[in-house]
Specification:
The complex is a heterodimer of chains A (317) and B (286). Chain A has 317 residues and is an all-alpha fold. In chain A, 69% of the residues lie in helices and 3% in strands. The longest helix of chain A is centred in the N-terminal third of the chain and has 41 residues. Chain A is flat. Classes of the chains: A mainly alpha (317), B mainly alpha (286).
Chain lengths: 317, 286
């Protein structure tokens, strides 16, 4: 994120090069070679496995896909794009993804920082709680989806059993479109909030204590301290957390696949699952490629905007 | 002033707030850990104890689900596949990514900043945009259902990840370390492999473990690029969870889920100190 700072003197350039002019030049070329040799393996790998597939996707998205030869044959221009743009199912899946992102991301960031505040109260068990909070983070998302499907089961699930005590339900978590979306968001929040708690913990511990002491002496109450001292100080980290979580959330796939498989109907059919189905179940590779390119562009534009926004926030506070 | 005059109620109020915070922290932890506890518990239940209302907490434990799934289904080969792929992609990415992270942190290279930014942006590439072409290319080259395919596919997200974490790690090291080594006649490689790598071992190890965890739980590429011989555990779980014909087999789901989760949790707790540090730093400084 701070690539601008690169090359401003955090380098070792005074490699000892001795000898006459020709060996010096040789040494310099050799040194250049050595320097690049650190970066080249990853560039080769990522060009072959990341850049090339992306270009291939773009290529397919402009072509007619021949199922018999399993390859792109004829250039068709924007036809695939026209087709998917006219496909209401694609728009629906984008809408579902948007609802998920708009609800889940702020919820997780707020919860994450709130929980970090709670679990960092100083006492003997703090270290243990902090360690235990890592556990949901390393549960495979697909396991999380399956596990919660059992917990939220309308008939036998333990969630409805407990909600019964509160006089709620029984809720048909996977039969009702809104509840199914809620279920997906609950599972995702369960899986990812601990990650935000972790970052927030580091941020909270790095807060300067004297500012809070000063606020307290000035008679600021808890609420105004939170709003006018803590949150402005935390803003850069909150923004960074949001961006990181965004990068993960746009890949949403596993949890939905395991918990709802897009259902009921298409209520939780996020765009990644929709494209997956279109490509590998319906074998509509050209249309899927076009959709993947659209999603890729949307993601890149928004990521760029968020990165810029978070940098601006960093400058502001 | 008031704090000096009336210290007692002030302290009392603060300690009450403090107690509420601790209590809240404990409650939240229980809420977050309960689902895992429930999964592990269910995996030791009999069918009769699983499908009962109200849900039961006390029952005679049985390992029937484990025995059944370890023998009948292809869970063991899948476990081995998952281990091969996770270690392979973890090791590949840690070597390649660490060198790149070092280059970005310490070596002046024309255009390296742009490359670094591109690689950071690549973390936003949705895997589905890679899955389609990878499937087609792998099919053409006869590489579907092979471990190496998954290992390479996973390195697309692991290399940038390792690179970024290790870059911030190297930035936090004092520069005098390799400068003095190079003045003493060490080559760049020598300085890197003899000085930097050994003192970075804890950070490297935690990054490696976390990369392996990410590979361990990956689903989309595994679904697309494998079907029998190289298929992994997450694919099996997706299959069990999505089995709408027979209804959800919760005993199988929870048993396989527990097998998947337990080793990872053990590893994560072993390196939790470094994990917390590395992740938090990677996130806040990245």
């Amino acid at each position: 994120m701070r690539a601008r700072e690169e090359g401003k003197g955090m380098t070792i350039d005074n490699a000892p090069v001795t000898g006459d002019a020709s060996t010096r030049r040789l040494g310099r070329i050799g040194d250049l070679f050595v320097r690049w040799s650190f970066l080249v393996p990853s560039i080769v790998l990522l060009v072959a496995l990341l850049a090339y597939p992306i270009f291939y996707t773009i290529d397919i998205s402009f072509s007619h896909f021949d199922i018999a030869s399993f390859g792109a044959d004829e250039w068709v221009g924007f036809e695939n794009y026209r087709e998917v743009m006219g496909d209401y199912r694609f728009w629906d899946s984008l809408k579902v993804t948007l609802i998920y992102l708009v609800v889940a991301l702020p919820l997780q960031v707020v919860l994450g920082f709130g929980i970090a505040f709670l679990i960092n109260a100083e006492w003997r068990g703090r270290g243990m709680i902090r360690a235990l909070f890592i556990i949901p983070m390393v549960v495979a998302p697909v396991v999380a989806g399956g596990m919660w499907r059992m917990i939220l089961d309308p008939l036998w699930g333990v969630m409805n059993y407990w909600l019964g005590f509160l006089g709620i339900g029984p809720l048909d978590w996977f039969g009702d479109p809104n509840l199914a979306m809620a279920a997906v968001i609950i599972i995702d929040t369960w899986r990812w909030t601990p990650f935000i708690v972790l970052i927030a913990t580091a941020a909270l511990l790095a807060l300067p204590k004297d500012v809070f002491e000063a606020a307290r002496i000035d008679g600021a109450n808890w609420w105004s301290t939170l709003w006018s001292v803590a949150i402005p100080l935390l803003m850069p980290v909150i923004a960074a957390t949001f961006v990181i979580r965004w990068l993960g959330a746009v890949k949403m796939f596993d949890i939905v696949l395991a918990a709802t498989y897009g259902g009921p109907g298409k209520a939780t059919n996020v765009v990644n699952l929709f494209i997956y189905e279109e490509a590998f179940r319906s074998l509509r590779f050209a249309e899927s490629a076009a959709m993947a390119v659209i999603v890729l562009i949307l993601t890149m534009v928004l990521t760029g905007l968020f990165l810029r926004g978070s940098r601006k926030l960093e400058d502001m506070f | 002033m008031s704090t000096v005059v009336t210290p007692a109620p002030q302290r009392l109020r603060r300690s009450l707030g403090h107690k509420l915070r601790i209590a809240g922290g404990i409650v939240v932890s229980i809420v977050f850990l309960f689902p895992i506890y429930w999964m592990v518990l269910t995996s030791f239940k009999d069918q009769v104890d699983i499908f009962t209302n109200p849900p039961t907490f006390f029952f005679t434990p049985t390992i029937a689900a484990y025995v059944e799934y370890m023998t009948r289904a292809d869970i063991v080969p899948r476990l081995i596949n998952t281990i091969i792929v996770a270690s392979g992609s973890g090791l590949l990415s840690i070597v390649v990514g660490t060198m790149a992270g070092y280059a970005l942190a310490r070596i002046r290279l024309r255009g390296a900043a742009t490359i670094g930014l591109l690689i950071l942006l690549s973390r936003g590439v949705p895997p589905i945009a890679l899955a389609v072409p990878m499937f087609l290319v792998a099919r053409k080259l006869g590489l579907t259902d092979k471990h190496i395919t998954l290992i390479l596919a996973y390195s697309t997200f692991l290399v940038p990840y390792v690179m970024w974490l290790m870059r911030s790690f190297f930035l936090s090291l004092p520069r005098e370390l390799e400068e003095s080594a190079m003045i003493d006649g060490c080559s760049r490689y020598g300085a890197f492999f003899k000085i930097i790598v050994p003192i970075s071992l804890p950070g490297l190890l935690s990054t490696l473990i976390f990369s392996m965890i990410l590979a361990w739980e990956e689903l989309l590429f595994a679904l697309v690029l494998t079907n029998r011989h190289a298929s992994t555990i997450p694919v099996a779980i997706a299959g069990i969870a999505g089995d709408t014909v027979n209804g959800a087999n919760w005993a199988a789901l929870t048993a396989v889920g527990t097998i998947t989760v337990v080793p990872v949790v053990v590893f994560a707790l072993l390196v939790q100190k470094w994990l917390i540090k590395g992740l938090a730093e990677g996130a806040t400084k990245g």
